[in-house]
Amino acid sequence: MNDIDKINSSVIILDIRNFTPLMKKYSMNPDFLNMIKNIYEYGLQVTSAFCKADDFYINSKGDGFLCIIFGENHYVKAYLIGLLLLKHARKYFNDFFLDKKDSGLYPSEGRDFFGIGLESGNVEKIETQVINGKKAETYLGNVINIAARIEALSKEHGRTTMLFGPMINNLLAENLFGFPYNKLISKAKDFLPAELLNIEEQMTDINYKLLSSYIFEHMLKGVDKPLPIFRISPTQFKNMNTNEWEFLTKIPSDIKTVFESFF
Fold first, then answer.
1. What are the beta bridge partners of residue 228?
2. CA-CA distance, 11 to 117, in Å (whole number)?
3. H/E segment holding residue 126
4. What's the predicted TM-score (pTM) here?
C-alpha cells in the first residue's frame, strides 16, 4: 500500500443550528430552500475567488458544509472566508426571518442560526476509481474532527458564532505579527510573574489585532488534551471599520483585494 501524503490545510466548518425543526417548518417554503442554497453557493463563490481549483475542497451536507483550503496562505484565506461567511450567512438568515421572529425558532438576542469552526492541520487525500472512470475523492484528518468540535462549542457560548483553534491562531499570530503564540503558551509556567504579565499583555494585543478573544482551554470530544480556543469578538466585528483591522495590512495585497471585493 502506498504512503498517503499529508497535506497542510485549514478547515472551515459551517453548521446550521436547529436544522431539523427548521426543515420541518419551512421545507415547502421556496424562499427558505433558496436561502440554504445561497449560503452554500456564496461559500463556493468566495472560496473559488481566493483559491485555485486544486487548492480547495468543499462539500455540503445539507445543514452546512465542510471546506478545506490548501496551498500558500491557506490559514489566511480560511480565516477571511470565515469572516465573510459570518457576515453574509447572518444577512441571509436575518432577511428570511425579518417577518418571522414570532415563529418560535428565532434565536435569542445576539445569537445566530449557525456556527463556524476553523482549525489548521494535516489532512490526507483519499481518491478512488468508481464506475466508468469517474473518480471520487475525500479527505481524512483529525483536524476536520477538531474543527467540527470547535464549531459545536458555539452552541454553548452566547454571542459566539465563529470560533477557531490554537493551530490557525498561531499561524496567523506568528506569520502576520511575528508572535510565537503557541510556544509562549507552552512555556507560560516557566515565566516569573512579571514576565508572565508582559506575555499575557502581548497575547491580548494579538487577540485584539485578530478581532478575537481567548475563551480558555476546552476538552473537545475525540481530542486527547485540552485546547485553547478563540472566538471572533462580536463587538469588534460589528463596530470596527475594516480600515481599523490591522491584520489586513499584513496579508498579501491580492488576497486583501479579494476579501474587500466580497465584504
1. 217
2. 8
3. strand 114-129
4. 0.92
